[in-house]
Write the structure tokens for this entry.
Amino acid sequence: MLKSYEAIYDHGNIQWLSEPPKVEHFKMLVVIEQPESENNLEHLKQRMPPPELKGSIKWLDDPLTSVISETEWNASLARTARQFAGDPEAFK
């Protein structure tokens, strides 16, 4: 499973812009965002959310079970199946 983390690589050092991965050994896939100027890293730091937002977003373990009931979920799946089958009434 792939997870994304933002970091700045500066002369051999990694500065994590968010919570670093909680593993000791891992394989990395590195994608480089080329800065406009090699000496200007400020534009990368601007992507950080303001400190006052820290902790304001709560992730649920399984958001679907908290948002809709199992009956609503099954009805949604049935409607999608009807849409794929070409039932024009399923789009209303």
Summary: The mean pLDDT is 76. The first helix runs from residue 42 to 45. The first strand starts at residue 7 and ends at 10.
